[in-house]
């Protein structure tokens, strides 16, 4: 194996995994160590890699030909695509050891910030060194960092509840919300709720939107009600409405009352629409501008970082007021058209209105058919008075067209694997 003799595992989190042909297989999410009956440090038997469709698989340490800070490379052979399941005598190093409160043989207490694996002359990898941040008892000063041998640290045995969240959050920090949501599903419920609660409101809102409904509800229930209301305020109104729909009506009312009125009002409106209709799946905050706005103003608006690509793909044009429900709906302008027009031109001169808008009662199958027919990324939704009340975007359609449990890792599609769960590579 062409790799350093010692590798610190927290630094591997998120590193890309490549097959012998240079094609990316996935990204490293953890390392698997096997506990031993003796006092010897646990043996590292492989890595856990996350593939597309959020599938986590096991990569035997014997299949890995090189490890460096930028890539893990596999040797030739057959890649087993069966979903990884931890065995009773195995340890997920990052998930279970980071932030563990331990004691050094000097008597000093601290928390684990990283763990190194090391290769012996015989080619066996084992956990060899532990990086421990000493507890100082002072809020204003970080303790010294000690890098010590595995056998000089007490408290690394059975998994307990003596763990914080700071170092695990540092490992998860750069993940996309969907990947972080996937990582949370691997944690025990109590640990998952603890890590979720440690996220800031905006980050937690993004992650909740990517979780299965039952996990959303459990995490929200573990927060105090005011914090839960704050997180709901950070969510897109349609996502917040979907989550609140999973709660009993009395709990919905309590959380809505705790939200700021201007944040709660659009969510209340969405909750009134029948399930499976345009009103229930739309976003009530599309990009809306008046007809006398310029192309330059429209381009500046869709550049705003908080807008999702689907929402930013088009500008809807309406008479004042410009918050939903607006004045009379006039039409829409796709961002590609904006790029082709002079910056000083007015939207009223380039608006397109040759496609009938959706009604709040339009059923989901009809929405899907019309968006596919006209190759639309988003479509306006109007009320009986032709006022714009929202827009259905392609991500809304996908979310509500896929099976209800599509976000649940245990129910994820396995179509990329063959019947026996393997993917053939080059023969060894």
From TrEMBL:
It comes from Micromonospora marina. It comes from the Bacteria. The keyword Transport does not apply. One of its GO terms (molecular function) is magnesium ion transmembrane transporter activity. Residues 408-428 are annotated as: Disordered. Pfam families: CBS, MgtE_N, SH3_actinomycetes. SMART domains: MgtE_N. One of its GO terms (cellular component) is membrane. This is Mg/Co/Ni transporter MgtE (Contains CBS domain). Keywords: CBS domain. Residues 282-348, 351-409 form the CBS domain.
């Amino acid at each position: 194996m062409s790799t350093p003799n010692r590798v610190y595992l927290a630094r591997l989190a998120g590193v890309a995994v490549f097959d012998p042909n240079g094609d990316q297989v996935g990204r490293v999410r953890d390392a698997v160590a096997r506990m031993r009956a003796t006092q010897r440090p646990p043996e590292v038997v492989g890595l856990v890699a996350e593939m597309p469709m959020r599938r986590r698989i096991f990569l035997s340490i014997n299949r890995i030909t090189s490890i460096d800070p930028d890539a893990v490379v596999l040797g030739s052979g057959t890649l087993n695509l069966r979903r990884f399941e931890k065995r009773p005598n195995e340890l997920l190093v990052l998930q279970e050891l980071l932030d563990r409160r331990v004691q050094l043989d000097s008597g000093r207490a601290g928390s684990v910030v990283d763990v190194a694996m090391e290769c012996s002359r015989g080619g066996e990898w084992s956990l060899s060194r532990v990086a421990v941040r000493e507890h100082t008892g002072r809020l204003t000063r970080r303790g010294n960092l000690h890098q010590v041998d595995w056998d000089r640290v007490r408290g690394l045995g059975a998994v307990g509840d003596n763990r914080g969240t700071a170092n695990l959050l540092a490992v998860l920090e750069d993940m996309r919300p969907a990947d972080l949501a996937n990582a949370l599903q691997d944690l025990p419920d109590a640990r998952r709720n603890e890590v979720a609660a440690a996220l800031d409101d905006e980050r937690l809102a993004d992650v909740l939107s990517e979780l299965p409904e039952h996990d959303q509800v459990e995490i929200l229930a573990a927060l105090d009600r005011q914090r839960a209301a704050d997180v709901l305020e950070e969510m897109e109104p349609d996502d917040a409405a979907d989550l609140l729909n999973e709660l009993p009506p009395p709990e919905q009312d309590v959380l809505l009352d705790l939200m700021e009125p201007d944040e709660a009002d659009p969510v209340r409106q969405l909750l009134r629409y029948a399930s499976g209709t345009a009103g229930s799946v739309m976003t009530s905050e599309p990009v809306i501008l008046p007809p006398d706005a310029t192309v330059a103003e429209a381009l500046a608006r869709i550049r705003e970082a908080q807008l999702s690509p689907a929402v930013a793909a088009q500008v809807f044009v309406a008479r004042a007021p410009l918050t939903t429900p607006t004045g009379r709906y006039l039409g829409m302008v796709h961002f590609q058209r904006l790029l082709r027009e002079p910056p000083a031109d007015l939207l009223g001169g380039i608006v397109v209105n040759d496609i009938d808008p959706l009604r709040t009662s339009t059923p989901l199958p009809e929405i899907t058919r019309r968006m596919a027919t006209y190759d639309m990324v988003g479509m306006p939704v109007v009320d009986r008075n032709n006022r714009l009340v929202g827009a259905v975007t392609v991500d809304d359609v996908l979310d509500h067209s896929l099976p209800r449990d599509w976000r649940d890792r245990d129910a994820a599609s396995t179509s990329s694997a063959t019947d026996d769960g393997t993917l053939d590579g080059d023969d060894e």
